[in-house]
Design brief:
There is one protein chain. Helices cover about 25% and strands about 5% of the residues. It is an all-alpha fold and about 325 residues long. The chain has a domain at about 1-95.
């Protein structure tokens, strides 16, 4: 079994059942007197997503400790984590806070403040107020820049007015963050990759209708698991997008449901080839998609899995 399939198997075998167990535990209790489970409340989608996040962190899903190669990789990761934490602490000690750093010539900020798994929120160590003074006009990649920064960045960054005119890659920039600032004025006209940009960003629900999407090739997983997001994206120029796999939707195993329900029928999807899982468990989506031109689409697997309503007419014909 290859690593990807083994990872998926482990998640389904161990992690998903634990997520369901934790949700059930929080929603009720076992009455020993009557010998049955008593449900007292129902967690909403955001609360269920938070449970999922907690379980994954506790179990460090997909790290196969029985595999010698994976054990080696885990040791390397721990070493890198310790070095990174030590480096950030040393930076703060020697250079102070980074709020007014001159970053005018920086081109790559990938994973700069990533807070992966057991990291101790590194951005808090070096940021006194916010990043509003940073000149990021030459930055081309912000891939994973705030990856998994759950606790601090909700509305503390003040990056609404950043000059992102050179940006080409913003994939996973706000993945699993608490980010909720309005960045509708960002210049994303050169961006090609938005994969996972707001994936599992539990609090984000800001307008993005001003974004110039003409050069974007992928929005795969862009809003997947973003349980609060419900903004109108009709104005987007999607004519060059090739990959829309798992763009919307939630997590079937943990029953985390997104609320997204905005019209998308005006989207030009004439270049799209991959729509796998695009509305996976998007149970609240009730808009018509009948007018879409899906002539170039090669993959529609699981596109409407978990839906409570009927799929478009063209889907039934495939």
């Amino acid at each position: 079994m290859d690593s990807e399939n083994r990872c998926r198997s482990d998640f389904q075998k161990y992690i998903e059942p634990e997520i369901k167990h934790q949700i059930k535990y929080l929603e009720g209790y076992f009455d020993e007197h009557f010998g049955k489970y008593v449900k007292k409340r129902t967690l909403d989608s955001k609360q269920k997503a938070e449970v999922r996040e907690k379980v994954i962190k506790e179990n460090q899903s997909c790290i196969h400790t029985q595999d010698r190669e994976c054990l080696s990789k885990l040791d390397i990761f721990k070493q890198q984590k310790e070095i990174a934490e030590s480096t950030l602490q040393e930076l703060h000690k020697n250079l102070g806070y980074i709020d007014f750093w001159d970053v005018g010539n920086v081109r790559d900020m990938s994973y700069m403040f990533a807070d992966y798994m057991t990291w101790s929120h590194p951005i808090e160590w070096v940021l006194k107020d916010n990043l509003s003074h940073w000149n990021v006009s030459k930055v081309e990649s912000m891939r994973g820049m705030f990856y998994w920064s759950l606790h601090y960045i909700k509305d503390n960054l003040k990056i609404e007015q950043w000059d992102t005119s050179s940006l080409r890659d913003m994939s996973y920039i706000f993945f699993r963050t608490s980010f909720s600032e309005n960045i509708n004025d960002w210049n994303v006209s050169k961006v090609e990759n938005m994969e996972g940009a707001f994936m599992e960003a539990l609090d984000f629900d800001q307008p993005l209708d001003k974004w110039d999407m003409r050069n974007v090739k992928s929005i795969s997983y862009m809003f997947h698991g973003a349980v609060s997001f419900n903004q109108n994206l009709q104005a987007w120029d999607t004519s060059n997008i090739v990959d829309m796999s798992y763009t919307f939707g939630g997590f079937g195993g943990a029953d985390v449901i997104t609320i997204y329900n905005q019209p998308l029928e005006s989207w030009d999807i004439s270049s799209v080839e991959n729509m796998e899982g695009m509305f996976y468990y998007a149970k609240n989506y009730e808009q018509s998609l009948d007018k879409w031109d899906v002539s170039k689409v090669k993959n529609m697997d699981r596109m409407f899995e978990g839906w409570l309503i009927s799929a478009p007419k063209w889907y039934k014909k495939r």
